[in-house]
Amino acid sequence: MTDTWDPSIPEHKALAHEIELGNGIPEMRPLSEAREALKAVGFKIEHEEDLADRPDSVPWYYPLEGDIFKAQTAWDYFTVWRMSWSGKLVTHNALRVLEFFRVVPKGTWEVGETLRLAADALVKGGQTKVCQLRYLIRHSLTEFVAQLFTPMYLVVARKP
Predict the structure, then answer these.
(1) Residue 3 counted as domain residue
(2) Please, which pLDDT band fits residue 61 given cuts at 50, 70 and 90?
(3) Within 10 Å of residue 5's Cβ, how many Cβ atoms?
């Protein structure tokens, strides 16, 4: 979770729980705790960056979003369609039928539902923007917008 994530806000906590549940993560923590952990074991952070914050016309979560207009290649149309409402309907009902006829193991549909929940939570985490006020050195207030979740936090650290 990014540093804008606040566990005291019920919506933030629920979103984190959905991501944890769907991805099998025991507990997600904010980036500030990752920084502190690196420093606590003696690493010096050389560079850190949230790659999801880079300016890009297509967001990182576009394959999970189900918006066919964001598809970039021929294969993307199929990938994005699978996550659209009609793609989810076809996929999940097909899994139910296959499970009923024992073509796939029992429990496959439940796993698919868990993954669907995870995908929806990841998209919501990427789309949820939090406005904050940051105090600059010039003593002026500037508003910036940040996501609640990032899958692309890059840290370059070294052990001195």
Answers:
(1) no
(2) confident
(3) 24
Counting DSSP H helices and E strands in the chain, the numbers are 6, 4
Q: How far is CA 136 from CA 6, 107, 140, in A?
A: 22, 53, 6
- Please report whether residue 116 resides in a domain: yes
pTM of the model: 0.76
> Is pLDDT above 50 for 26?
yes
In angstroms, the CA 25 to CA 132 distance is 27
How far apart CA 19 and CA 91 sit, in angstroms, is 21
Q: Is residue 2 part of a domain?
A: no
Task: Give mean pLDDT, residues 72-79.
Answer: 89
Among 15-29, 74-88, 136-150, the range scoring the smallest mean pLDDT is 136-150
Domain enclosing residue 56, as ranges: 10-158
How far apart are alpha carbons 65 and 80 in whole angstroms?
7
Our count of domains for the chain comes to 1
Residue pair 124/16 in contact (Cβ under 8 Å)? The answer is no
